[in-house]
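We store amino acids, C-alpha coordinates; thus:
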Amino acid sequence: MKQLIETIVKPLVDYPEDVRIEMDESPNRIVYKLSVNPEDMGKVIGKQGRVAKAIRTIVYSAASSHHQKKTYVDILD
Protein backbone atom coordinates (compact mmCIF):
# COMPACT_ATOMS: atom_id res chain seq x y z
CA MET A 1 0.00 0.00 0.00
CA LYS A 2 2.90 2.36 0.71
CA GLN A 3 4.12 1.88 -2.84
CA LEU A 4 0.66 2.67 -4.21
CA ILE A 5 0.46 5.92 -2.23
CA GLU A 6 3.96 6.93 -3.37
CA THR A 7 3.07 6.16 -6.99
CA ILE A 8 0.03 8.43 -6.76
CA VAL A 9 1.57 11.31 -4.78
CA LYS A 10 5.10 11.71 -6.20
CA PRO A 11 4.03 12.92 -9.68
CA LEU A 12 1.76 15.54 -8.06
CA VAL A 13 4.43 17.30 -5.98
CA ASP A 14 7.42 19.54 -6.74
CA TYR A 15 9.61 17.84 -4.10
CA PRO A 16 9.09 14.07 -4.50
CA GLU A 17 12.13 13.33 -2.32
CA ASP A 18 10.24 14.81 0.67
CA VAL A 19 7.32 12.38 0.42
CA ARG A 20 7.23 10.21 3.56
CA ILE A 21 4.75 7.50 4.45
CA GLU A 22 4.56 5.87 7.87
CA MET A 23 2.32 2.97 8.77
CA ASP A 24 0.68 2.42 12.15
CA GLU A 25 -0.98 -0.95 12.52
CA SER A 26 -3.30 -2.04 15.30
CA PRO A 27 -5.39 -5.22 15.58
CA ASN A 28 -8.39 -3.75 13.75
CA ARG A 29 -7.02 -0.91 11.59
CA ILE A 30 -4.09 0.38 9.55
CA VAL A 31 -3.24 4.08 9.34
CA TYR A 32 -0.93 5.42 6.63
CA LYS A 33 0.48 8.82 7.57
CA LEU A 34 1.51 10.85 4.54
CA SER A 35 3.77 13.86 4.89
CA VAL A 36 5.03 16.09 2.08
CA ASN A 37 6.99 19.32 1.76
CA PRO A 38 4.92 22.23 3.15
CA GLU A 39 4.95 23.89 -0.29
CA ASP A 40 3.31 20.79 -1.80
CA MET A 41 0.52 20.50 0.77
CA GLY A 42 -2.00 22.34 -1.42
CA LYS A 43 -1.29 20.10 -4.38
CA VAL A 44 -1.88 16.94 -2.36
CA ILE A 45 -5.08 18.23 -0.76
CA GLY A 46 -6.46 19.95 -3.87
CA LYS A 47 -9.37 22.34 -4.17
CA GLN A 48 -11.94 21.55 -1.50
CA GLY A 49 -9.98 18.37 -0.69
CA ARG A 50 -10.78 16.66 -3.98
CA VAL A 51 -7.29 15.25 -4.59
CA ALA A 52 -7.02 13.97 -1.01
CA LYS A 53 -10.45 12.37 -1.32
CA ALA A 54 -9.45 10.69 -4.60
CA ILE A 55 -6.22 9.33 -3.04
CA ARG A 56 -8.18 7.95 -0.09
CA THR A 57 -10.79 6.36 -2.37
CA ILE A 58 -8.14 4.54 -4.40
CA VAL A 59 -6.26 3.34 -1.31
CA TYR A 60 -9.47 2.22 0.44
CA SER A 61 -10.55 0.25 -2.63
CA ALA A 62 -7.19 -1.47 -2.98
CA ALA A 63 -6.90 -2.15 0.75
CA SER A 64 -10.38 -3.60 1.14
CA SER A 65 -9.48 -6.53 -1.07
CA HIS A 66 -5.95 -6.81 0.31
CA HIS A 67 -6.46 -6.44 4.09
CA GLN A 68 -9.21 -7.51 6.41
CA LYS A 69 -8.68 -4.35 8.49
CA LYS A 70 -10.08 -0.84 8.17
CA THR A 71 -7.57 1.38 6.35
CA TYR A 72 -7.08 5.12 6.77
CA VAL A 73 -4.88 7.72 5.05
CA ASP A 74 -3.92 10.79 7.10
CA ILE A 75 -2.19 13.76 5.52
CA LEU A 76 0.08 15.36 8.10
CA ASP A 77 1.00 19.02 8.04
